[in-house]
Amino acid sequence: MGGRGSFSASQFPFASDRSLFPARRLAVTMAALTDKSLLSAELEEDGDGDGDEDEEFQRLLLQATQKIQSTMPSAPDSKPIRPQPGFCIKTHASPTEKVFVNVCRSPHIPPPPDLTPQELECLIESDSASAFRIPMSLGEPHAELDKSGNGCTAYDVVINTGFFNKLEANLLFKEFFITVALEGLAEKYSTNINHPEWLVLKNRKFMGLISEQTIRTKSRPIIQEMDLDKGGETQETPMELSHPQSFSVVPKFTIWAEPPGRCPDFLRAEIHLPQVASALELSLELGEDRIVLGGGQAPYLLDIYIPHHIKPERSRAQFHMGTKVLTVVMPIQLVPGAPMLLP
């Protein structure tokens, strides 16, 4: 592909079929919660016109459109949630400093990949254990009093409700999560939590009072429309998926790493959507290692994991109205994987 590292569609298992994922490939789920605003469309370029006069008209119209859009209220980039209590962990930051970690649950936090206990065991024994990232919200430390009336510090950690239930049913998942959560708190707040020495309290689910937490929401990338040279026909493969729609079409797609090699700077995805007339028909969500695309009259549905961690907030998408190809450019994160934290 002209010097670009290329990935074919067959290398990307669909997220709806977990049986296709080896343990090492199950990296993370969505990097962050997205808001529900639809993708906006930009100007359509016709190819016909009166040369410079038409280009000047398009430029002025684009400026006017941008001014109008800039005055529209933007979607909130965060929202408050009120978690439910789960269980409480007792540990220490020093021999005399008690620390309590309130593990809470909320449906507003995304779940991690749905591993089996056997897959988790393989992941822990492998060199890729740090790649399995658990979405969680780490609250600010708050001062409390223990049962003896002595001062202590408490942290609130919120995870997905379904994943919490899984922890309660499986000790291996619970111990793995607690290790990840304590490491996340230690890194975020520069505290010396003594990881090996912790205890889940039997008669207490929460230390202190439950308060609201604010989690970040990220808007979906804007898809720009283009109408230039007409392209050829593309093929699509019908496939039934577990989705509210009873029948969906998985579009043909290709993903390139640029430059090719083990350390590319960004990924470029080209998704063929021959039955889509406008970007307004599409809904695109990007996670740190996931692409979810839906919409169109087909209807199209693409839900895949990708082999690199990207920066969703810096990614860009463009729909070519002539070739019916959606191009998504995704910068790659340079920092190695760590537990996924929601503020």
Q: Which terms would index this structure?
A:
single chain, 343 residues, alpha+beta, Immunoglobulin-like, 7-stranded mixed β-sheet, 6-stranded mixed β-sheet, 17% helix, elongated, disordered N terminus, disordered C terminus, PIH1_N, PIH1D1/2/3_CS-like, PIH1/Kintoun_subfamily, PIH1 domain-containing protein 1
Folded structure, characterized:
It is a single chain. Helix content is 17%, strand content 32%. The protein is an alpha+beta fold. It has two domains: 5-45 and 219-335, Sandwich (Immunoglobulin-like); 79-215, no CATH class. Strands 4, 5, 6, 7, 8, 9 and 21 form a seven-stranded mixed sheet that branches. It has a six-stranded mixed sheet with strand order 1-14-15-20-19-11, with no helix packed on it. The chain is elongated and about 80 Å long. The two termini are 40 Å apart. Residues 73-220 form the PIH1 N-terminal domain. InterPro entries: PIH1/Kintoun_subfamily, PIH1_N, PIH1D1/2/3_CS-like.
List the helices and strands and how they pair.
Elements: E1 5-7, E2 33-34, H1 52-71, E3 78-81, E4 84-94, E5 97-106, H2 117-125, E6 136-138, E7 142-145, E8 151-160, H3 161-169, H4 171-189, E9 199-200, E10 213-218, E11 223-226, E12 236-239, E13 248-251, E14 253-258, E15 266-272, E16 282-286, E17 290-295, E18 300-305, E19 316-320, E20 325-331, E21 341-342
Parallel strand pairs: 2-10, 5-8, 6-21, 11-19
Antiparallel strand pairs: 1-14, 3-10, 4-5, 4-9, 6-8, 7-8, 12-13, 14-15, 15-20, 16-17, 17-18, 19-20
